[in-house]
Amino acid sequence: MTPSTPISRRQMLAGTAAALAGTAFLSGCAPTLGGATTAQTLQFWHLLSGGDGVTMSGLLDTANASQDAYRVHPTVLAWGTPYYTKLAMAAAGGRAPDVAIMHATRVAGYAPGGLLDPWDVDKLASLGVDESTFPAPIWEKGHAGGDLYSVALDAHPFVLMYNTDICDAAGVLDSDGSLTPTTSPEEFLELSRAVAAESTGHGLSFGYLGDGAQMWRLFYTLYTQHGLTMETPEGEKAVLDDDAAIESLTYMQTLLDGEIAAAQSDYGTAVAEFATGNSGMLFTGVWELRTMQAAELPFNASRIPTLYGTDAVYADSHSFVLPHQTSPDEEKRELTYEFVADLLKGSFDWAEAGHIPAYLPVTESPDYADLVPQANYADAAQYVQYDPPAWFTGSGSNFQSEFGAAVQGVLLSGNDPAAAITDFRRRVDGLLAKPNPADPEGTFGS
Which residues form the signal peptide (predicted)? Predict the structure, then answer.
């Protein structure tokens, strides 16, 4: 389906169904508009609120003030299902905004059926945005069906934060203040117990109760460190290595022994334990950087150690997409490309939110090397592992909830990891047997 093809009522309803297949967690706030009245207005939808919203507001103010050709008008919508439903309906009706933010992992559910228009890679390249300016896994993730459908602003990986005072007392810091490298599950257990001995709470904070996303982030980090990925071929069975999956889940169970990490903890409790200086380490996303800075905590951050031989870390990306328009204004479409290129090139401040800018000239600059602790985990962008692509996967999706439902008993009650992995596989196979609501006839291709 080409970008100029009208979408039928059936596809419009399918778009709504796709939006309801899962939810995503992003957020925002709007910048002040100004400048020449002759500038074209570009409509930009996003859900970036809180600190992320403030930072995005600043980036948009800078982009608007730097030229006279366009003025970006942001619309900030409620997170989750409301956003994705409205975006799908606007695209299905051909009345979408000029550009929008999506999680990269959600694009696989929207590109089929024409809910998104592909980017012109030659046009992007003429503006200094191409394959060479992105880490390989991030650029590749933007593709579906052979076309580029999303251009990443960042990577926001799952990382390890650590209290430098506690870890120093535990003797697990190198001379440069970095955490002592560990290269096996056993070494990390030993380090964690040393940190626990110097902590008033636990050695490691990890919140998972009722949070499938948290369980999945750590599991998939460990699983992909085996040099494997999960495959989810449409209409077929999931491909998951049982031995590696069971080993990864069993290791998570081992960490939650009441000494290294609490046997029962939700996300908020884990973050609070670390932020108040009661634990030495924390598994979390980079989005908690501002939380720890506000707590005036002595801390650093790094990639989660490679324990199974292959550098890998779970992540997602906030990405720019072109929601489908039936008759796009060619001048505005050209200016949209310029806006995205301008924002990528000026994304240094986006790192203040903890995220890793995807545009390599930013992260490879001397100024970025001085940004601590962000520069200490920036290499995670080279090793990101996204959800396996399927219409039902992605940040905040039902897929992650299904994983949590299958495995929480292992972490909470010591249930059999093998049985939990079997249950998870059954749940995924059931979803794979259903057609993509946005492409029910499977016309999109692979």
Answer: 1-26
Q: Are strands 99-103 and 40-46 parallel, antiparallel or unpaired?
A: parallel
Q: Look up the pTM and report it.
A: 0.90
* Other C-beta atoms lying within 10 Å of the C-beta of residue 9: 9
Token pair 């996300």 is found at 267
d(CA 340, CA 134): 14
User: CA–CA distance from 330 to each of 125, 147, 215, 349 (Å)?
Assistant: 18, 20, 44, 30
CATH number of 158-315+397-432, picked from 3.40.190.10, 1.20.120.680, 3.30.420.10, 3.40.50.1110: 3.40.190.10
- Give the span between the Cα atoms of 318 and 154, in whole angstroms: 6
Q: What is the Cα–Cα distance from 353 to 357, expressed in whole angstroms?
A: 10
The answer, yes or no, to whether residue 34 has pLDDT greater than 50, is: no
Tens of pLDDT, residues 86-143? 888 898 887 899 999 999 998 998 888 789 999 999 999 999 999 999 999 999 999 9
Give the domain 9-153+317-382 fold: D-Maltodextrin-Binding Protein; domain 2 (3.40.190)
**DSSP-based three-state secondary structure for 240:** coil
Give the CA count within 13 Å in the CB-facing half-sphere of 184.
Answer: 3
Contact 34, 3 (CB under 8 A): no
